Amino acid sequence: MLATLAFLFVFSSVLLCKADLSLAEDGMFHIAVFSDLHYGENESTFGIPADKNSAALMRQVLSQEQPDFVILNGDLITGENTFAFNSTGYVDQIVAPLVQGGYSWASTYGNHDSKYNLSREALYAEEKKYANAYTQHGPAGTDGVTNYVLPVFPPDTTASNQKPVALLWFFDSRGGSEYQSLPANVDNIDNYVSNGTVSWYRSAQADMQSKYGTLPSLAFVHIPTLAFVDLQAQTFPTVSGPNYPGLNADVPLAQQGYSNTGSEAIPFMQALLDTPGLHSIYSGHDHGDSWCGRWPNSTLPGYGVGGGSSQNRPFLCFCKHSGYGGYGVWNRGVRQIRMSFDQSGGMIVDTWVRMQAGTVVTAVSLNETYGGDTYSIADGQ
Predict the structure, then answer these.
(1) Predicted local distance difference test score (pLDDT) of residue 67
(2) Which of 97, 195, 226, 229 has its CA 20 to 30 A from that of 157?
(3) Which of 92-96, 259-263, 328-332, 338-342 has the lowest mean pLDDT?
């Protein structure tokens, strides 16, 4: 009951304090996802030029794509390289292109967003100084900060009691180290979506289901679950091939949890699989991967949670390493997601990556034939 009331309070706050997110006049909703920006990395050496390059990428991609909404999907800052007096100041640099362009955004936080001189709470407080920030703090009982949902309404919505056409779910996969804890920057925060957050999500999702029926939805979480590992292993080397185009250079990829089985994140994985209408899940963290696939219908021995029929298994998508901080020398880019809707309310999702060079790569339709359809294997590298 308390979780339900907390969810309703957060949900109502979104609607009362912000303009509703709504489809464009053409009935579509276009999201640009900047992942792993890693501002503030090694600021005494290459960090300042790197941050300037990241800002240039943001401005260029925003100009070319002109999305309806922006998501910052974790590791906004390389917290271990910052100082206490300037750590949250990087938020102002990160969002400057968004503010200047008039874009609204929402964030998830990553494992590098909690370090000795940077806390998630301070990061959130800095974000919330901006009217364009839709990032929300999760209710009591959740762990981390960025656990919340944003509804998307039909075009020209004027009343908050109108039925949404879709939901955007955000989860905090945590990780990193506690603020000002010693020894400095030694990771001591669990790196998976907690059971408390899973309980909130199941309750909140049930409330939405009861109120609106089944709504199509997308989910955003920085660290991928073991389902991504299973998919990569089961489809290798066809991941990054013509059926699953995209970079596949982090092999095996790093997932939520500590054990090889990812058992810590299994409650979260099961909750995702149990969600009616969940279309796709978007993660960053692994800078060398940028492919999409379908949640595997079986798992490696002792691993993860497998899905059922193809209709009930969400798609799994990596974003694209967008920032010039962080490991890896791969060319940078930004995942784009375009949601459109048929007459019955069914959602269609097309996605692609816009590279800083201006090219579009890995443009695919995440539909029932994905995995059988063939696409160009160009990945921008």
Answers:
(1) 98
(2) 97
(3) 259-263
CB distance 149 to 204 below 8 Å: yes
Predicted local distance difference test score (pLDDT) of residue 15: 46
How distant is the alpha carbon of residue 44 from its chain centre? Answer: 29
**pLDDT tens digits, residue range 177-224?**
999 999 999 999 999 999 999 999 999 999 999 999 999 999 999 999
**pLDDT at residue 106, rounded to an integer:** 98
Answer whether 69's CB lies under 8 Å from 218's CB.
no
Tell me the H-state helices in the chain. Answer: 2-17, 47-65, 89-101, 120-127, 195-212, 226-235, 266-273
Helix (H, G, I), strand (E, B) or coil at 113: helix
Q: Output the DSSP codes for 62-102.
A: HHHH--SEEEEES--B-GGG--TTTTTHHHHHHHHHHHHHT
Tell me which residue has tokens 């994140």.
Answer: 265
Query: Which residue has tokens 């999305």?
Result: 67
CA 70 to chain centre: 10
- The alpha helices in 133-275, defined as continuous H runs, are 195-212, 226-235, 266-273
Q: Which residues, including other chains, have CB under 8 Å from residue 28's CB and lie 6 or more apart?
A: 68, 338, 339, 340
Per the model's pLDDT, the better-predicted residue between 107 and 14 turns out to be 107
Distance of alpha carbon 69 from alpha carbon 79, whole angstroms:
26
pLDDT band at residue 157 under the 50/70/90 scheme: low
Q: Strand order in 292-294's β-sheet?
A: 21-22, 148-153, 166-171, 217-221, 278-283, 315-318, 292-294
193, containing H or E segment:
none
Tokens 């959602």 correspond to 347
Q: How many helices (H) and strands (E) does the chain have?
A: 7, 13
Give CA–CA dist 335/322, Å, rounded: 9
- Reduced to 3 states, what is the DSSP secondary structure of residue 292? strand
Query: Distance between CA atoms of 364 and 362, rounded to whole angstroms?
Result: 6
Q: What CA–CA distance (Å, rounded) separates 228 from 329?
A: 22
